[in-house]
Amino acid sequence: MQRDFPVLAVGALFVLTLVTGAASVPAVDASKSNIIVTFRQENVPVDAPFKKFNGRIDYDPAHPGAAKAAIEVTTGSIDLGSEEYSAEVRKKNWFDSTTYRTATFISTAIKPGPLGHFDATGILTLKGKTQTVIVPVSVARAVSTTSFDGELQLSRSYFGIGDPEWNDVVDDKVRVKFHIVE
Amino acid sequence: MARASHKCESRSIFAVSPRQRRFRLHVGGIREGVGQLGMSGARLSGFDRRGASQYHARMQGYTRTAIALHWLMAALMTAGFALGATMVDLHISPRKVRLYAYHKWIGITVLALVLIRCCWRLLHPPPPAEPMPRWQLSAANFTHALLYALMICTPLIGWLYSSASGYPVVYLKLWQLPDLVSKNDALAKVLVQVHGVLAWTLFWVVLLHSAAALKHHFIDRDATLRRMLVWRRG
């Protein structure tokens, strides 16, 4: 935990720089965007949205390969439908939101696909652990906004999220679905 | 009656199941009575069929299916209620999540069974009540109607509550049931209250129903309870 701190601080600083530096360019419109975690408990799919997140996606349709994305999610803002459960997942065994306030995704490479699609490779940092993920993203442009949609699957155990005693009830695989508008 | 109908049955006895045979046996009994009117037992009109099933109800009491449904639902509702009453106060734990799942499965089972039971009851009318004062008969009819309404509404509202709170019901961990409403926190808060009130009302009405059955058995000493006990049927 102690050792992870500088990495985390640098990461957070990086994201912060990106976010604040983007004052002139559009940033994520959180009111129109959503990031939803879907997990299964007793095989029941439960959607839990994060209420707080920010970030920025630089995307030029003429040069999709040069796109850049940085998203920061406040882990404690997850909503499991009842405050009792939401409070539970903020605890140490789960997100440990006091120590690891945010989770971040920072793109490292963008591979353009067919029109309106790209694969974003990036580093996901969550609860002090990092993982390189590749996320297929689809882009839809409207008059004044651009939206990015995608989905990725994560393992709870990899990030140490959830007490092992829950493993019989809650699936290890968790899907994260996002709809980012800026 | 048995001897007479046995004669009637002798031609087709190998072609029918014991259940069909039982039906034919009592139809045979009726046929004797209507035979003089020139009606053929082989071709029963709807009216005769209804007459037959009423005759069946009077003579044989509840069907085995009705009795089985009654006690199966009694057991499930007791388990479901006990689970519901204990699980809500538990701290978050895998056990709590499991108990909620079991509670929902029981509720869905009760809902399915009560619908089957309603259909069965329409097709197989219950036997007429034992002789009792008019007010008791009205009270019994009202209690029974209330029980049916609660047996349908309590699990249904529970299912609605589950949907409204964003947790679909996955029956026996296998089949995901459709959400009756989309996620709505305000609605969920109301529905959980309603579900609780209905469950507690059901609890008290079941208690009243049981007390009345015991009163008929031990004080009035009539067949009200006995005819719902399958092993007492002769």
Tell me about this structure:
The complex is a heterodimer of chains A (182) and B (234). Chain A has 182 residues and is an alpha+beta fold. Chain A has one domain (4-181): Beta Barrel (Lipocalin), CATH 2.40.128.110. Helices cover 16% and strands 45% of the residues of chain A. Chain A has 3 helices and 9 strands, in the order αββββαββββαβ. In chain A, strands 2-1-9-8-7-6-5-4-3 form a 9-stranded antiparallel beta sheet. In chain A, strand 6 and strand 7 form a beta hairpin. Chain B is an all-alpha fold and 234 residues long. Chain B has 2 domains: 2-60, no CATH class; 64-232, Transmembrane di-heme cytochromes, Chain C (Fumarate Reductase Cytochrome B subunit). A two-stranded antiparallel ribbon of chain B has the order 1-2. In chain B, helix 1 crosses helix 2 (18-35) and helix 5 (94-123) crosses helix 6 (134-164). The radius of gyration of chain B is 23 Å and the shape is elongated. The two termini of chain B are 16 Å apart. The model of chain B is unreliable at 1-47 (pLDDT under 50). The A-B interface holds A 41-47, 81-82, 84-85, 88, 165-166, 168-170 and B 92-94, 97-98, 101, 165-170, 173-174, 176, 183, 185, 188.
Fold topology:
The complex is a heterodimer of chains A (182) and B (234).
Chain A: H1 4-21, E1 34-41, E2 44-50, E3 53-58, E4 68-74, H2 83-89, E5 102-112, E6 117-126, E7 129-141, E8 146-155, H3 156-159, E9 173-181
Antiparallel strand pairs in A: 1-2, 1-9, 3-4, 4-5, 5-6, 6-7, 7-8, 8-9
Chain B: H1 2-9, H2 18-35, H3 46-60, H4 64-87, H5 94-123, H6 134-164, E1 170-171, E2 175-176, H7 185-218
Summary keywords:
heterodimer; A: 182 residues; alpha+beta; Lipocalin; nine-stranded antiparallel sheet; 3 helices; elongated; B: 234 residues; mainly alpha; Fumarate Reductase Cytochrome B subunit; 2 domains; two-stranded antiparallel sheet
